Q: What sequence folds into this?
């Protein structure tokens, strides 16, 4: 197959949701449809049910599985589909944000009972920053949920995105009859169906008496009324609007009952974008370019506890990636090659000889990679759009075993490179401040420092609530600000200066009093 056909086959996306909406179930059903797994239950949920370290550690024990499920690949309808897994727990939201930088589109799962939840809003903000095309799957229609029109309004209001239903539910909960495909005029009849993948689909005109016979006169009348309403409220669905990230097509179904999945998957194969172009510090890179480029968006450490190996997940952006070939590691300015690059199936990983744009390869790493690193065939540029966001909790790392200070230093900086948390260094004394979005990350760091690096530490709370990256056109003004506020200035992992603000009010005052200094809430800015 030619390079271009390989490229056009690829669809790389992530499923995002608030925990418990049904992301894991949907992933599994997509894999079943794709023939990548044979039985339900093969995909281990990587979610952490409670805010408990033990759950995380349990998952760590099964690291082999969780690494394999970081990327899941299958073929369906002539496409090669790469699903990038995202952690469901909110304390690991940063990991999800970064994964979103490596996808070309997203499927958002909503629980029809709960509607739009907090985590969904934050994830969608990240999608909107990049105009990522989004398909919405409203799940759990076998439950008594919100009115579908209300749900669509809620999606539009809370997520600031326009929506357009593609399928429409006929009743819900215990009276759920199925979904009607608005563009293809067919009815998919619902059955409680936990294991089978069969669909009971019939082409049926909206005004056909057969519809009344099959779903009942009342539900058929309601459907006709709903469709009329949909046609007045919503514009016709245009693929271009979806691809531009300005309209999200909506599907209804029940993942646990394998219902509505085929419609979703078929439409996804038809409309979702092939690998898209990506921005770098120098120019836009097109996937069709002959020369290979890619970037690291995720790092997994210590797959094998006997070694200090890590796996760096690299998204291929252009050209063909080849096993054993030398590539330029732009940040380190050195040539590197990989003799055993991996690709991931549902429950296994295989060494591959080549990869194409859209693919994700796992590269063994002995400490060369940081998140955001770029590989090229020699061109000096790095992919942009992989920012850090301001953490919400800040704590200083206090060494509790003076004999192990080297191990602690190394552990802390390696965990920061992996993206487990953000590291800020303050003077005097090279004090290490760790910033996270959740409590759980601190527990994980403490545990991993002890078990993987033999270093013990405790954390001391710091009163900061926001980290702002600071810049100024006038370097003297910036230096003066940093000198005056030295107690609140730290350097991030790339040595960029950051102002640590205790409250929003303090931040506002500092902005007002220092108009020549710019404060940025993410690490990337123009
Ligand atoms: P997540 O990855 O988004 O966190 O959600 P997950 O798929 O684990 O689903 C959360 C719960 O919702 C699970 O139940 C799952 O079975 C259930 N669920 C998923 N899809 C549907 C659906 O279409 N209808 C209904 N009624 N429930 C659905 P659980 O009790 O937490 O786990 P389990 O013991 O059933 O696996």
A:
């Amino acid at each position: 197959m030619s390079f271009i056909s390989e490229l056009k086959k690829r669809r790389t996306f992530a499923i995002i949701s608030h925990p418990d909406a049904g992301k894991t179930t949907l992933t599994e059903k997509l894999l079943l449809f794709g023939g990548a797994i044979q039985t339900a239950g093969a995909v281990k949920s990587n979610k952490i049910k409670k805010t408990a370290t033990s759950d995380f550690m349990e998952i760590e024990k099964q690291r082999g599985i969780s690494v394999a499920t970081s990327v899941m690949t299958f073929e369906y309808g002539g496409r090669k589909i790469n699903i990038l897994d995202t952690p469901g727990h909110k304390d690991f939201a940063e990991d999800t944000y970064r994964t979103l930088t490596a996808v070309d589109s997203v499927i958002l799962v909503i629980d029809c009972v709960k509607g739009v939840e907090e985590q969904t809003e934050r994830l969608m903000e990240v999608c909107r920053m990049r105009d990522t095309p989004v398909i919405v799957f409203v799940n759990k229609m076998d439950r008594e949920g919100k009115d579908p029109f209300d749900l669509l309004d809620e999606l539009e209001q809370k997520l600031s995105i326009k929506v357009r239903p593609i399928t429409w539910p006929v009743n819900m909960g215990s009276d759920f009859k199925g979904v009607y495909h608005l563009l293809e005029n067919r009815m998919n009849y619902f059955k409680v169906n936990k294991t089978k993948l069969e669909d009971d689909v019939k082409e049926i005109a909206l005004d056909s008496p057969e519809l009344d016979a099959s779903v009942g006169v009342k539900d058929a009348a309601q459907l006709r009324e709903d469709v009329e309403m949909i046609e007045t409220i919503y514009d016709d669905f245009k693929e271009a609007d979806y691809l531009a990230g300005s309209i999200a097509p909506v599907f209804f179904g029940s993942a646990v009952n394998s219902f509505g999945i085929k419609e979703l998957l078929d439409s996804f194969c038809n409309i979702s974008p092939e690998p898209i172009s990506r921005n770098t510090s120098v120019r836009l890179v097109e996937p069709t370019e002959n020369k290979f480029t890619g970037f690291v968006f995720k790092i997994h450490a210590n797959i094998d506890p006997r070694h200090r190996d890590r796996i760096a997940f690299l998204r291929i952006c252009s050209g063909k990636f080849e096993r054993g070939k030398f590539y330029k590691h732009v940040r380190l300015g050195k040539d590197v090659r990989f003799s055993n690059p991996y690709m991931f199936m549902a429950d296994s990983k295989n060494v591959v000889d080549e990869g194409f744009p859209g693919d994700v390869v796992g590269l063994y790493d002995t400490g060369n990679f940081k998140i955001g690193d770029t590989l090229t065939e020699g061109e000096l540029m790095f992919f942009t759009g992989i920012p850090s966001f301001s953490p919400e909790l800040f704590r200083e790392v206090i060494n509790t075993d003076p004999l192990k200070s080297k191990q602690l230093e190394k552990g802390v900086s390696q965990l920061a490179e992996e993206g487990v948390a953000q590291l800020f260094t303050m003077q005097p004394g090279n004090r290490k401040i760790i910033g996270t979005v959740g409590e759980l990350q601190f527990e994980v760091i403490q545990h991993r420092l002890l078990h993987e690096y033999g270093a013990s530490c405790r954390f001391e709370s710091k009163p900061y609530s926001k980290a702002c990256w600071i810049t100024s056109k006038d370097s003297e003004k910036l230096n003066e600000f940093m000198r005056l506020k030295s107690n609140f200035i730290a350097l991030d992992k790339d040595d960029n200066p950051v102002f640590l603000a205790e409250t929003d009010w303090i931040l506002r005052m500092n902005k007002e009093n220092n108009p020549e200094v710019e404060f940025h809430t993410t690490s990337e800015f123009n």
About this structure: The mean pLDDT is 88. Residues 17, 19-25, 45, 47, 88, 139-140, 142-143, 254-257 surround guanosine-5',3'-tetraphosphate (CB under 6 Å).
